[in-house]
Amino acid sequence: MLKRLALIALILGCDVSDGAPTAGTISDPAVRKIDTLLLTLDLRLDALSLAPGQVEWVELEVDGRPWGRYAPDAVEPGGEVDQDGWRLNHRPDPEVIVAAAEREMQRADAPPGDVAGWASALAHALDAGDHLARLRTVRLKRDDGEVVELEPNLLIPFTAQPGASSALIGEIELPISKSEVTQ
Amino acid sequence: MKPFILLTLLLCACQTDMKFENAVPGATLHNLRFEVRDSSYVAQGQRLLAGQTSQKISISPGDAGASGTIHFELEVDGRRVALRTTEAFVAVEDEETTFTIGPDTPVDHLLVEDTTMALWAE
Can you give the pLDDT at residue A73? Predict the structure, then answer.
């Protein structure tokens, strides 16, 4: 996983050059827009909160276009209660997700094979103003390896501020039912 | 005089040329070059906006009709990535050929190709 992130960072890492062609990627800070979205995700199961470390990734869209698939920041696994194999807390302890282009997982799993694919991958830049994010999929993984994919398709309006390079989508509380996470 | 004119006409008729065309909506292509055998043919001006075509580039007789690849940088929203076509392009001998880079053009990234399986593996 670290190797994958390192490679993506290399591919999309920012540097400025106007000289000869290079094998890397170049970004021009003069025209840089908002390319990082932030959100916290609290999954509520009954009256409890899913402990961090069990969300494998979330998939986002912004303004109807794919924004990518992102893993939460790594945390120490915790949990006060065990219920059907899920670790739960009494107090909310949300996952923190930094949806920055260089962290996108899909590109490493399946690098684009044509110009349109690369153009779409590069188009992770928003102008200041109002936008609409959609939380398409949340993939959960229990400690025993059991995987559950939720499709909340939650629409989240947010505002990108002028001059910023990141925007907070929101602090999202998502109720899930026991039937969704038990097989 | 007549043989000279005929020879000149003959030489003109045998010219092999190529152009680059950017057919990627909303994208700019930079530093386009056609690499064939040991030669590299670079587009003048270095930058093509969507819909633009480069000036004509002459291909030497030894490279006419040979398969090559196009290297370029794709820029969208101020971000760039260096790409290379994975399908062959050929400058047709004695003709003017336009190499069109479009959304469907198959490409790879040099870094991706150089690192393949080891880095993609979990």
Answer: 86
Q: Does the beta-carbon distance from B119 to A27 stay under 8 Å?
A: no
Q: Which of A62, A114, A124, A127 to probe by mutation at the B interface, max B CB count within 10 Å?
A: A114
Asked whether the predicted pLDDT for residue A9 surpasses 60, the reply is: no
* Integer Cα distance of A32 and A66 in angstroms: 19
CA distances from A183 to A44, A137, B71 (A): 18, 18, 50
Give me the pLDDT at residue A162, please. Answer: 87
Supply the ipTM of this predicted assembly.
0.82
- Portion 82-111 of A in contact with B at CB < 8 A: 101, 108-109, 111
Angle A68-A11-B36 from CA coordinates, rounded to 5°? 120
* Helices and strands (H, E) in chain B, number of each type: 2, 10
> Which pLDDT score, from 0 to 100, does residue A122 have?
82
Contact yes or no for B78 and A33 at CB 8 A: yes
Closest to B45 (Cα-Cα) out of B68, B64, B67, B72:
B72
Q: Which of A35, A2, A41 is nearest to A170 (CA)?
A: A41
**pLDDT by residue (tens digit) across A84-140?**
889 999 998 899 999 987 777 666 667 788 999 888 888 888 888 999 999 999 999
B109 touches chain A (CB under 8 A): yes
pLDDT tens digits, B48-107? 999 999 999 999 999 999 999 999 999 988 888 899 999 999 999 999 999 999 999 999
Selected for mutation to probe chain B from A2, A27, A31, A118 (highest B CB count within 10 Å) is A118
DSSP code of residue B26: T
- B117 inside 8 A of chain A by CB: no
